[in-house]
Amino acid sequence: MNDQIQQQHHFQNITDMSSRNASFDAACNCPALLSNVTFIRHGENLPIFVPEDLSAMQLDVLDKLLLNKHSENTVIITIAGYGMRHELYNWIHYMQTAKEKKFVVFCTDAKLYMHLIVAGHEERAALIPEDWFVSSPDLFRDTTLSMLDDDPRLSHVKTWVLQRLVYSPVNALMLDVNQFMMHRRTREYIQTLLRIRGDTQIIATQDGLDQRTINTGLLLIRSNAQAAKRILANTIQIQEKQPSLNQQAAFNKALNQMELHVKTGMTVLLDIIHFPNGLNYFEHNLPESKGIKPYIIHANHKFGQDRRDLLKENDFWKVSEDYVDGISYQIEDILKRTNQLLEQQDNQKAEPLEDAP
């Protein structure tokens, strides 16, 4: 640059850029060492950090995923804790009725994991590893609460598991345990929508009739999808800043910060007549008014015993509670005996050794 005006303009640009970077660095409280993350500024309200990769998935968890993957690399998953065991076994009944024998239940606690093993579902059960929890896992290991009933804890775990799976070699079709699959080949139908358009990274159900709000009770995430990685990273960041916010609210906030296109965008919404939520199915009778039998029904507008009563009244409660409770008694007995044995071992270690004669 021999021209003096060009030189002055060039160095002014460098000075301005340095000033802007310095201002941004001063406002940012991010860790200094970020070797495995990419800094991305898009339309988000705050800068987000999207990991380039995550720690290697535990081999036992990866084995369960690969063992239960379907054609086109899709694995059906759900997430549950011990307090949700009756709802979970009801969900399993509908999976089996729809001829879906391959799925993975991610357990938030070891008690449910043991329950599934005793019930013969060892190949379909995985205990969520501790390093998948963004926050301390102790609160999420609590086995006394359902976590299904409007509890943000479960929705935090769902986001963390989804983030792990989007970096895995399988497409994850996550269903809540109060999603009832009514048709065979439902999975194939949803997979086809993912295959039709290469831009599609997320398939979800709607939470209303305005096609504006996603219901995260059903999500199909394409493996290693870059935009999906960013949305999940942003969802986690939003939930960490607002712990009382559930996954659905945080996920929609993340989506609203992106520029989405109906024809070329990353998201496809399933129609609400074939995939109704609880309000549209049980209260508004939307599918039946059109003469349509839904693929999946999401019973999400009632909570606790009110939901159970509703499902029983409408013949959606297929689980044998006596069967589930019988296994629960076995688990309690196993844990009781194990604790007694551990106490005996601890007492023996604590006893002083007798002096030799």
Tell me roughly what share of residues is in helical segments. 40-55%
Strand content: 5-15%
Label the structural class: alpha/beta
Mean pLDDT figure: 83
Low-pLDDT segments: 1-27
Morphology: globular
Domain Nucleotide-diphospho-sugar transferase: 102-306
Protein name: Nucleotide-diphospho-sugar transferase domain-containing protein
GO molecular function, one term: glycosyltransferase activity
InterPro entries: Nucl-diP-sugar_transferase, UDP-D-xylose:L-fucose_XylT
What would your notes on this structure say?
- This protein is of the alpha/beta class and 357 residues long.
- The chain has one domain (59-322): Spore Coat Polysaccharide Biosynthesis Protein SpsA, Chain A, CATH 3.90.550.10.
- 44% of the residues lie in helices and 14% in strands.
- It has helices at residues 4-27, 59-67, 85-97, 110-118, 152-166, 186-196, 226-241, 247-256, 278-283, 286-289, 304-313, 321-350; strands spanning 37-40, 48-51, 74-80, 104-107, 125-127, 171-175, 179-181, 202-206, 214-221, 267-269, 296-298.
- The strands form 3 sheets. A 7-stranded mixed β-sheet has the order 5-4-3-6-9-8-10, with helices on both faces. Strands 1-2 form a two-stranded antiparallel sheet.
- Helix 3 links the parallel strand 3 (74-80) and strand 4.
- Helix 5 runs antiparallel to helix 7 (226-241) and helix 7 packs across helix 8 (247-256).
- It is globular, with a radius of gyration of 25 Å.
- The model is unreliable at 1-27 (pLDDT under 50).
